[in-house]
């Protein structure tokens, strides 16, 4: 309105100011959640504009951080403002970096999201029994998911650290074992050892470590 010496005048007629949709703009509100099955991953996001007159393609990039291996999926064109896509056969114990962008030249990607797949259950009930100058390492296999047990080959890594107080994974020696028990034959006199075990699939996905144990105590 106009304010003058005789008060406030009438409002001017409203004007529509159109905004230009940028097809290169990054998608918004990227989220990644576990699907109905633990080996599925749902990726969802919103379009950069609250109204989409023209359909557009989106490309989802998934980087497997265990292998530093990217894969991409380009979806059919859509003018929906909320989009979802489900990935199947996600590996237990994996970590994935996900980004989404429109499928046009010089498109800007969404903010990345890191998704941690359901973990591989670790071995447990680790026990170390001395046998003269050797140690016998026993453990119980974790509650391995049936999909992992029936379709994927795996083995174990036994980690041995020469420190009676602190388990330092970076300094530990690693021994590949197909199944328990493991016979540690390299024990030195008057040296205390700490042991831990993890499951590793043959394509590189790992469980978290078991509890750390020594012949004298468990921590």
From TrEMBL:
It comes from Bracon brevicornis. Residues 1-25 are annotated as: Disordered. It comes from the Eukaryota. Residues 119-219 form the Fibronectin type-III domain. This is Fibronectin type-III domain-containing protein. InterPro entries: FN3_dom, FN3_sf, Ig-like_fold. PROSITE patterns: FN3 (PS50853).
